[in-house]
């Protein structure tokens, strides 16, 4: 036994040496996984970009024949100095413990936590004590020695990356960070400001945007999301009948749960016990049942032949996702290394693609949800929303009245069976053929007619009144008054425009007075002079002389005009960013 | 001068600056108002709860549930198998009573600690209470066309007749206690925004309106049957027209032509000149004006159209009928009119459109946002020779 482990140890040492020497090779294989490579690529790209800009500027300066222009070398020196400054600032902030903010604390915590999680003793196997102690064999190999316990070969690079982040960031990353922070306003409004969560205690202050953190999170998430995507795939396989036995099992279990909901926790517990723990045990202690591999399987299952919806070609158990394979240790080191890398890279890329698609689906779903919330549920199209509401109300009432008389267990299970049978790839086309297009057209016509005449939108419009003041200026004689302006301001001696001796905002004719946006004038109304001068003067706290319909002071007189404005409804709700 | 082409006017502020009431109110009234203030506040809060206008909506739900549970206290017999429900109802009622007492107590103690309200404060609360009461009244009694239908005794009688079978059906399925509980729930949610909005949305549906008007317009064959209103307006009941003997033999269109000429010339000539001394030379005619209303409704997609709602006046209606029953079109009408009427006007003349709201109340001569219906009157004068 001991000699076996010694052999393993030797192989590890060999592997580590290979990894250190073959780092470049690994980088070539997995460009996405290696942060350094990416950085250097971006750095290269930026350098090229600046080269272009510089060359253009150089040309321009030559064309203009301007001697005073800064030379390329100076420019580059300036950029370098500013980059250095940025780095220095960052380091200074990191070192100055007194000036440490909550954000820095969190960043530090995140780094530490990640390091811990990677070198966590959780992954150490108590049966392989040498492995954990192996890290102490030589001081040089300490990082890599720990990483053996982590899955796969990519972890060593990950560790290195984190070390580099902890020590000093790459220039480009700092540059990008700076660029982003320059684009954003200084005090980025917290999400909490818009919601009630502002008073919620114990909520962590949100983190500033950082490319470093974002890219790291993305990397870790992508590597670990394999299980989720596998689960998603298996659900799709179940629904599309590509795994008919699985589909029928699921349906049966669902039916059982419908009749006895307590089965739900029982089945979950059963899955944990027999689906996860027993295989785990079996992995550790195989029962040594000898299987004789047969060359060919003869015969077919009736169920599978009848019910299959397609080849279950990509069916695979979830346990081979990202799991460390001990059995391959004895193969040729270099080949194994390369194969492992390729597999990991592939897996990473596939996961990344799935993540991207998931994000696209999420975006689409959010957009649809938004459309529903602000469109159909927001009475954007009043007719459609009313129909939706009324049919929903009808369904609600009917369900409420009928629900005591319906056997929901039977309904749910029969519904599930019927639904999945309808979705069967062989049944669905026949069903869609059965429902011919004419009927659909007819249904649409009926719906249109319903929309046309069965919904009556004749609510009283909202009514408000507008007011303006027609202001006249004292002429040469006391009887002479010249028209001055039409304005919303009373323009009394205490008015701010009057004090600054400027005319108030206004127009020369009532034609140019418009209603506030979303409102319009009632066409059956006109501007009416308010004869109750005393009342409106009192409401404004003005005690001036009254002359007929005018309120007169030493230099101006004005009368108040009102007019009715109407609108059918408030404009529909809209998200703030639209 | 500032010459801006477009200028947005400002709204009239409904609550403008009013002169303070503190110094203008007599101390006696101020004191009375001040003593009345706590009652007012508690009443306002009760109204808030009934109208679900309290800040915390969940409280409304909790109170509603507690009230529904408390209804079980009214159960006359003691049933041991339902001990849990009895206990729950007792608990709910107790909690409700305690919370009411606690609220009143805390309101009073808060007021004692706080500075005294001004008369203006009290008036504002009073106005809000009155506003809410008015709102509740409108929600119960209805307004516009719907109010008229509920307010008569006849309508109330009908309501009772209609509700009796519903009541009977409810009693078959539910126990009186359950019915009472549902009634309480309805009572305490009826004035909530959700209930009122649901009612408004339901009112948009044509079948709902049809059903409503079918029930309320049901007259049990009592009124206005067989009593058709007149289709014309009498302009002159006994107009004396000179009628030469030479025209005696004429019939049909030539007679009409002659009489038309006579009428027109007579109306232009001096009336005193031919005061009839010989009765043979004159005939007495009755001059009337036939009037028919043409009605239209505005639809969002097609604009003004003759498509009207089943319960309201139809495309052509009788102008002088208070019920606005439907009529033939003017051209069909002139075909079917009895033979002894002779037309004075050559053709039907229509007035300008009159724009109305959804319940045919006149709004003005121009199409505006609030106008959903319009009508115009077709008129034509005619006469009949009196024997």
From TrEMBL, chain A:
Residue ranges of the region described as Disordered: 133-158
Membrane topology: Multi-pass membrane protein
UniProt domain TECPR1-like DysF: residue ranges: 208-562
InterPro entries to which the protein is assigned, alphabetical: Peroxisomal_Membrane_PEX28-32 (IPR052816), TECPR1-like_DysF (IPR010482)
A single BP term in Gene Ontology: peroxisome organization
Transmembrane portions of the chain: 262-282, 387-406
Record's keyword terms, sorted: Membrane, Peroxisome, Transmembrane, Transmembrane helix
A family per Pfam: Pex24p
Compartments, as annotated in UniProt: Peroxisome membrane
GO cellular component, as recorded: peroxisomal membrane
PANTHER family: PEROXISOMAL MEMBRANE PROTEIN PEX28, PEROXISOMAL MEMBRANE PROTEIN PEX29
Name by which UniProt lists this protein: TECPR1-like DysF domain-containing protein
Native source species: Eremothecium cymbalariae (strain CBS 270.75 / DBVPG 7215 / KCTC 17166 / NRRL Y-17582)
Automatic annotation (TrEMBL), chain B:
Transmembrane segments annotated in the record for this chain: 60-78, 84-104, 155-174, 180-203
Record keywords, A-Z: Membrane, Peroxisome, Transmembrane, Transmembrane helix
Record's GO cellular component terms: peroxisomal membrane
GO biological process, one term: peroxisome organization
Membrane topology: Multi-pass membrane protein
Major site of localization recorded for this protein: membrane
Residues of the TECPR1-like DysF domain: 17-380
Record-linked InterPro entries: Peroxisomal_PEX28-32, TECPR1-like_DysF
Subcellular location: Peroxisome membrane
Protein's name in the database: TECPR1-like DysF domain-containing protein
Organism: Eremothecium cymbalariae (strain CBS 270.75 / DBVPG 7215 / KCTC 17166 / NRRL Y-17582) (Yeast)
